Every structure is written in C-alpha cells, then in structure tokens.
Amino acid sequence: MSIIEVKQLTKVFGHDPKHAVKLLGQGWSKEKIYRETKMTIGVNQASFGIEPGEIFVIMGLSGSGKSTLVRLLNRLIEPTSGQVLFKGRDIVGMNKVELRELRRKHIGMVFQKFALYPHRTVLANAEYGLEVQGIEKKQRRELAMNALKLVGLEGWEQSYPDQLSGGMQQRVGLARGLANDPDILLMDEAFSALDPLIRKDMQHELLLLQARMKKTIVFITHDLDEALRIGDRIALMKDGSIVQIGTPEEILTRPADKFVERFVEDVDLSKVLTASHAMIRPETITPERGPRVALQLMRESGVSTLYVTDKEKRLLGAVTADDASRAVKENLPLEAVIQTNVVMVPPDEVLNGLFDSMAEAKLPIAVVDEQSRLRGILIKGAVMSTLAGNRDASEGGAFYEQRA
Ligand code: ADP
Ligand code: MG
Fold it and tell me: What is the pLDDT of residue 392?
C-alpha cells in the first residue's frame, strides 16, 4: 500500500477557489484563469501514490507548484479540493490535535533556507522541532544528538550556525527533520542553495542515509541532474499539473510529451543510461553442439563471433569463426577453443564508464547478471545510437531479456 496517496488534489490561491476549480473542470488553463479572474492555480488535480521507502522526486520549473504540492502533504497549506491519505487516513479531515500528532510523529520537513536560529547552538537548533512539540528536555536532547550523529555532526553540538559551512548548516537542517524519526521526510529544495560540489556530497549522503534508515523521502528540486541522481521515481510538474511520473529511465527514454522531452533533451545520457539500455541480442551456442554447428550458425546469422553459454545461459566465453574452423580442422571439441577473456559488465553499469573498455576490448562486451547469465552484448553502433537519444535502441535488449 502507498504510504501517501494523493487524489485529485487541487490548490487555488485567490478569492473564489471553488469557482476556479469549476473553470479547471471546463478545461481552462492556469494562464487563462489568472488572466480572467486573477486567481492562481497552485496545484491542479494531482493524483499519485508514494511507496514506503522510496525517494520520490517532484521536479519542475520555478512556479510550477512543487512547494505548494509538498506543503499540501502535511497541510501546511489547506487544499481547495481533493484528498491526501497518509497510510489510508485522510489528513484533510484531521482536526488540530490529529494534525499535530501527524507532524510530530510521522512527517518531518527540511527547507531550502536552512532556517537555523543564529543564537542557538547546533544542538539547540536540531532539537527545535521536538521542543515545539513539547517533548521533555532529556528525551529531545537524546533524539537530537542521535540525529546529529546520523548526519555526521558529532562533536559540533555546541557550535553556532555561523561557525559552520553551508553544507554543514544544511546537515543541521537535515538533523532537525530527522530528529523525531519520522516515516516521511519532506525536503523542499533542501540542497539548492549549496555549492555544486557540496551539493553532490549531500546527495550522496542522503542516499546512504536512506539506504540505512529506509525512510520515505519526498524530495523537491528544479534540477534535473539532481532528480536523476537521487530519485527512485520522478514526478514532473508544469503549471500545477503533474505531466509525467516514472523512473529516471522512463522519463528520459519515454518522455510523455513535448514538454518533458524539452526538459530532458540536454541531459548527458551517458551518465544515466546503462548497459541494459544499449545491449543487443547476441548469437549464442552451448559447447556440446560442437564447432561445425557453430560455423553453421555464424553463416546463417552473418556474425563472426558466438557467445558460448551453458544451458542455464551462464556465460562461458566466446568463439570466433577462426577458432571454430581451427577446431574442425584439428578435430577439437568446441570447449578447447573458447576464449574466456570476454569483458563482462553488469546490466546497471552506466555507459559513461564503458567507453575505454569498449575501445580496448577485442570482442563486444558481454552484459552479465548476478547469476553470470548472459543478458546481452554491447556493440559500438547500438551504444552510440542509444546515446544519440534513439529511444528504440534498447529494444533488442528488452527482446533478449524476454527470451532469456
Ligand atoms: P515552485 O515551488 O514550483 O516554484 P510554488 O508552489 O511556490 O512553485 O508556486 C506555484 C504557483 O502558485 C505559482 O504561480 C505561485 O506564484 C503561486 N503561489 C504560491 N504561493 C502563493 C500564495 N501564497 N499566494 C498566491 N499565489 C501563490
Ligand atoms: Mg518552491
């Protein structure tokens, strides 16, 4: 079950939100509603589910509705219409006490502006949320210390924010969001104000933290690289609407419309696409079929190399036409002429890291899964065409996967 389920969620800013919702229903655009009524569509009929333990990224240009959407999830903003279910419970109908309980126990938040109090120590900043919630001193101290440790700030408890670098200040913000051990962490452009290198470190650490703590994270960014790097799934917003939800690969390789396509066209695909996207189906043979059959197969399929596997598709090596001819001439079994020095990579290897090995390898690189099974091979043409954004180039790989 989804941990958060959003149904037809809409937020209108202005004097008569219900009227604006009606106009949306009649197909009016955000722009037209603003022009005619001066009301602003913050979020337009968003529906989606967030799974426990995933990093769900909400991405979009400035003004597309990301902050409004994330604030609707913990009701910092009241929705105009629609539902937000947390573990099946509608938070839109919650009273003040229930809502406080929800924010206190289940949902934490980290903001872009670190929002630290300059006259409070790091520790006092980290425990601020707990203090507001009325948690007694000893316990909140303990929780805050734990959270600071998690984000690597042990030893800095008594420092003040201005003694810390930007990255460290944001760690304090992160610790504050984590202090009450929430199920869900909402992060609104949490890393956007950081220097690029520190930002990359923080992304990396967030992934480590996530792997350890298995929190559900809703992460907002306007930066596509960041979204691709950390998102399990990405929701792309435009004018308050969600235009596509998918894994990073799906967004890149199957953009839902022209808007998404334009959003992603400048991405360096080699850093995102993996071996499994570019691999094609190899011709294979099992050794007991012998060198004559091997030669026959090569002639039929017009290739000069066969990949040799056992019956379970585990890769044993490769034979070339020369190898097979030699085996026939010298009356050798196929095993005797198998080349075992085939370069192997896992399916999730990014193409960016493969150029050198591709240039050096004598035979096409084999893509091999954890059980040593051959999933496909990488030939230069298919890799280049995948990188050039030919979105069908991976079809061969997908086809092979179905057959294997
Ligand atoms: P993002 O976070 O993607 O930059 P926001 O959610 O902040 O976008 O804003 C979405 C839209 O709602 C924008 O057009 C913005 O001007 C408008 N908006 C946001 N907050 C308010 C508000 N309090 N009053 C009026 N309009 C608002
Ligand atoms: Mg915002």
Answer: 45
Distance CA 36, CA 278 (A): 49
Pocket test for ligand 1, best of 67, 188, 221, 243 (most atoms within 8 A of CB): 67
Q: 37 C-alpha vs ligand 2 centroid, how far in Å?
A: 23
For domain 275-387, the CATH class is alpha beta
Q: Which atom of ligand 1 is nearest to the CA of 240?
A: 10
Determine which residue's CA is closest to atom 14 belonging to ligand 1: 63
pLDDT digits (tens, 9 = 90+) for 172-182: 999 998 898 89
Q: Is the CB of 71 under 6 A from ligand 1?
A: no
- pTM for this model (two decimals): 0.73
For the chain, which residues make up each domain, given as ranges?
A: 4-106+182-267, 275-387
CATH code: domain 4-106+182-267 is: 3.40.50.300
Ligand 1 centroid – CA 5 distance (Å): 22
Name every residue whose Cβ is closer than 8 Å to that of residue 347 and which is 6 or more positions away in sequence: 274, 275, 276, 279, 367, 369, 375, 376
pLDDT in tens, 95-120: 999 998 898 889 998 887 767 899 99
| pLDDT for res 114 | 67
Show the 3-state SS of 291-312: HHHHHHHHHHHCCCEEEEECCC
Q: Tell whether ligand 1 has an atom less than 6 A from the beta carbon of residue 42.
A: yes
What is the distance between the alpha carbons of residues 106 and 101, in angstroms, rounded to a whole number?
A: 8
Which atom of ligand 1 lies at the shortest distance from residue 77's CA? Answer: 23
Helix H or strand E encompassing 86: strand 81-86
Residues of the chain with pLDDT under 70: 114, 389-404
User: Cα(220) to centroid of ligand 2, in Å?
Assistant: 8
Question: Number of H helices and number of E strands within the chain?
Answer: 18, 16
